[in-house]
Input
Amino acid sequence: MKIAISGKGGVGKTTIMALLAHHLKKTFKEVLVIDADPSPHMAQTLGIEDPEKVTAIADMKEMLRERSGYTDGSPFYNINPAIDDLPGRFMLEKDGIKLMVLGAIQTGNKGCACAENTVLKRLLTKLLLKADQAVLLDMEAGVEHLGRGTIAGVDHLLVVVIPSKSSARTALKIQKLAQDVSIPKISFVGNSISSPDDVSFLESMLNATLLTTFPDAQEIRLAERRGTAITTLASTFAEALQKITDAVGQ
Ligand SMILES: Nc1ncnc2c1ncn2[C@@H]1O[C@H](COP(=O)(O)OP(=O)(O)OP(=O)(O)O)[C@@H](O)[C@H]1O
Ligand SMILES: [Mg+2]
Output
């Protein structure tokens, strides 16, 4: 199962992905989180002490090259990595959750991280999963990178929205782009919800029902400020997380 998360900046993508990673350990034997944000933040959110220890995208390209029998000029068509097959030096592990950080991508003249995105796209589309493995992809905010096909090969896209017009508008753009690249399932997840009005506002803006909602929660703010792992709060939000689990498992 490959799940990606998207949404406007700061709506809670990384927070919800970290909570979900923890919750999915109940259902899946192996959970791999891929941090594809150029300003990666997942390691801190998971409570990993030395996030800089992981080897990021630049070296992953080397690894993929090794594995694909790459010769100059030929793209990485032969990559078929399985999760258990990916070398440990590209992973951090915390409480049974594996994390791969793509890292700060060096952008070229036009500010496009195309080569790296190509590698990511290939990795995601070719990553072989067993039924008991889940891959969660945390992405940067916005919509531009989606057009580059970063989410191709994803089974289910979660689009996080907070109760604001701008967040809902971004969510609609993301939905459209995800439909264009034929993501099989797209769900809206409400975050920082304080009232039933927030839900009805979002559902009418999106013209869709929210899969589930997370409340505006002081515990989340405090965990972030203290630098404690957000995963310790997963049981508090078990109901919402189970709804996502049920939906992605279908
Ligand atoms: N439900 C919530 N209640 C209170 N605070 C929250 C909630 N969800 C997220 N936050 C806080 O909002 C901030 C942004 O959250 P987070 O980093 O998960 O968003 P993001 O969408 O991943 O941001 P970015 O676009 O920068 O990657 C964090 O400080 C987080 O602790
Ligand atoms: Mg984030």
Observations:
- The chain has one domain: 2-249.
- The longest strand covers residues 185-193.
